[in-house]
Structure formats: C-alpha cells, structure tokens
Fold:
Amino acid sequence: MYLFNSEIVNKEKLTQNIFRLRIKAANDFCRVATPGKFVMLGSDDSLFDPLLRRPFGICRWGTDWFEVIIKIVGKGSSQLSKLEKGASVAVHGPLGNGYPINKPENEQNTLILVAGGMGIASIASYLFAAFDRKQPLIGTFLLYGAANYSELILLNELTDADAFGLQLQTITDDGSCGRQGLVTQLLSHELQNNPQSQVFACGPEPMLKSVQKVLQKNECDGFLSLENRMACGFGVCLGCVQSMINEDDETSVKTAKVCTQGPVFPAQQVIF
Amino acid sequence: MVDLKVEIAPGLVLKNPVMTASGTFGYGREYAPYFDISRLGAIITKGLSRQPKIGNSGVRITETACGMLNAIGLENIGVERFLSDELPILQKMNATVIVNVFGNNQDDYANLAAKLDGVAGIAALEINISCPNVKAGGIQFGIDPQAAAKLVAAVRKKTSLPLITKLSPNVSDIVVIAKAVEEAGSDCISLINTLIGMAIDLERKCPILGNVTGGLSGPAIKPVALRMVYQVAQAVSIPIIGIGGIANARDALEFLLAGATAIEVGTANFINPQTSIEIVEGIEQYLDAQGYSKVTDFIASLELN
Structure:
C-alpha cells in the first residue's frame, strides 16, 4: 500500500448529498488496486477535526487516477465534500483484500452482485474493472436496491454499452424504480433460477444479514463486503473487528479485522 | 548531528526519545511496510495478558472533537503467542521492544513479569494499571496508591527488566500515585493513559460505544497530559514518559520541555503510520536549528514566566 498526498482532478455531484472524486495516483498504486479494496482519505491531517481519515471503496481506477464515491453522512464526509478540483487530499491505500476474483471460476456458474445503497460503490468496482478490460459480463447479474430512484446512483453508467451482457435489476423501497421491496427479494428469486451462483454483496448491515440468510437457505456460497467503523485501516486500532465463526473450534467465536482480513469475507463465517 | 539518546531507566538508553503507545502500534510488524521501526527509540506492544483476550463487543471506536473514544477491551493474542510468533519478527527487524502487560490480579502481573524476565529481545516492561475499558484491566490498581505500590513491588520482585508503570489520569491526584510507584521500585513512569469519556447517539437515544464509556485520546487530551507530566516531573526523580495527544514534533518537544525524558505517540499513528518517525526527524531538526548538541540539555528546560 502507499501513503501520499495527492490532488483532486475531478469532482462530480451525483445527487444532493453524494459526489464522486477522481484523485491523482501513481501508476504503482493503480497496478495494485483490485475490486473491493479501499483507501483511507483525509483532507488536512493538521487540523485534527475531523481527526481520523475515512475509508472509501476504490470504485474505479485508470493508469494514474482512482475514484471514490462519497455520501455526506458526518463530519469527515462533509469536510471532503467541500474540496474542489485542484485541492490536496491525503491518501493511504489500496487497503484490504478485495473480492476473490482470481479464483478459477466454473464457467457455467453465474455471478450475482448484490448492492444496497452506497454498497454500489464497492460492487461497481468489479463491474468497472470488467468494463475497462473489455470483459463481457454474460452470466453476471447486478441486483441493485436503494431507497428511491434518485439514490440509484451510477445507473446510466451501468447500463451503457460497456455493460455488455450484464443483467441488471433494480428495486426501491418506494417503488420509484423497478419493483418495490428489498434487494434480497431479487436475490432469493435469482438463486432459485441459478442455484450454483457465486454471490458478492455490499450494503448496510441489515441487508447483509438478510443476504446471509438467503444464501444459507439456498445452500449457496457468497462473499460479503463489510463497512465497519475504523480508525486506522491497516490493522492496528482493532476498532473494526467483526465476530466470526472459529473454524478451528466451532464452540468459540473469533474476531477478524475488517480492514486487513476483509473487508470481504465468506458469508457463512460472519456473525452479525 | 544532535545526540538524541535518552536514558529512561538505569542502563536502558534509547537511541531517541520517541516511542509508540501501547494499543496503537499492534505488535510492531504492522508498521514495517511504512518505515524501519528500528529507528524508533522503542516500540511498545499491544497490552498482553496471560491468556488471549477477545475484547469488547459492539461499537468500539467513535470520533469526538479533535479526539477519539475507544473501548477495545484489551483484545490481544496472549503472551505465549507473542513470544512464539511476534517477538522473533521484531528481533529480526532490530526493533527495541518494550512489552506492555496487564492482568486481573497481582498474580497475573507477577506471572507475566516472571515469564518475560530474561527473554532475549525485550528491553523493558510497561505495566498497565490504567485501562479504563475492562472491569479488571488493571485500573483497580491504578486509582489507589497503596494498591499501585503493592503491585509494582510484586512485579519488581519477579523481574530484572526495567519497569515502566503507566498511570491513569482518572484519579484525583496523579502525583500521589506517581510517588507511590516510584517508592515501590518503578524505574520510570509513563503517563497518561486515556481519559474516561462517553458519546451519545441522539437519534437512537443510546450510548454510541458498546461498552457505554471509553477512553478519550488524541489532540483533545494534550493539555491535560502536559499538565500532569509537568506536575509529576516536579514530584518524582525517576524518568517520565509523556503520552497524550502527541501528533507532531512540536507536541513532542513541549512534553520534553515539561519534564518528560521521552514520549509515546498514540492515536496519531492511526492517521498517518509514519507519524512517529516524522517526529524523530522533527525533533532532530528543531534541536539542530536551535543549536542544541544533545536532547538531554533540552529536557525539563521549561522557563516559568
């Protein structure tokens, strides 16, 4: 991973309170980025308020830049939202394990990507990486849920010509786009049609809990990308740990650091 | 070249006065990708107990104005695994290693001290009598001068390693505790551990931390830490290690002026993993620019108005 001060090369408003930053990065950084990894970002460490850097999934990257998508929820994201093109930003990353994309895949299996709300920023990193490699996405489903139509960010980019073969289904809490309901309903349905699927999911914890249940019910493996609070991002603060099933001794529980052992974990291991 | 060497206990000379606070530096190797950790005065490990500890459940950290609250609950791999898996790595990296230990009772501390006595690659012990986040994590010893003295004396008997006692600020008079542990045989005092604090989620009308309360750290606590270091420095004759909100070389130098022989960098390690080594460089640059030939001439040179 790398530590550097960089520059914002583009800022784009996606909704009233969600924006995308494109940040300059060295080629070395971009070479080690993989879908599902994240960065810690800070605007000015010397101010101490906010004190800690904030974790954001690397949504897309090129040869000398990467992008993150930020929703304004508190002090850290709010301060980052005030940065404009040309402003400096402190970067630490890429961090974390990312999605297990290097595993040999059975060609017949389908891949189901499940995104809830801002979880799309992480899930989309898999899709953008495929677009950028011109990799067709036949047999790949994207099940995408959000509160309403305007919160379904990136929709245009995920349905354009790059997304060759991708089967996209949306669902919203208020029915303003796609069916009304929860994204796990779409997952249940798709797993019945494609019981041998691989599943990657990212979203709020209640959604991931529910994805875990659906996977269990369908005896299907999958991976969940968690978004726990963290102070450091590199395995020392122990603030982000998640309880996990201890495979060596099933009567006990162990903890895993979401930052370095995750953020992506096999769904059946996570104890919510 | 400024001579940065400091002696924090009889015979224990560090190459510079910058250490890393327990609980913010893992077991050391987590920082190896960022800089050569052997360049620090010493690294202080995550607090170790006799048995591994899983720590607290629920939300463990939350940010506050210029600070953070943590309620990790002393999660650690236990002394056995530290000795077998972590210490050899630190030795290979040539790091100066100070081991932080804690227990539920006096026997635990004495047992840990005996176990670590004479182990190659350990420069000193820091005994934690000040963790605010677990019911039995040493704090019962840290708030009572007699109990603190008794514990230090018991540990002293079991080890020939230099002993540093880490004090809690959550007491009515830290000077009394400092004097008690000095008399009981502590070679050095480190202060301060975190201040007990609390954060509330107004929307959910509940405490943010799973443990309800947590330890406040970061720049927010620096003035309290500086004041306590200054007060203790007036009252004891053993060396003091200053801890509390140190985020840059200026902060570190202020603690040295106040009477600390060395300092520990804590929360700032989370923000930028290179903070501690940048502080070593910053102290050297400052002293050089000010015409000092050795850091010991600068320590405790505070001029009162």
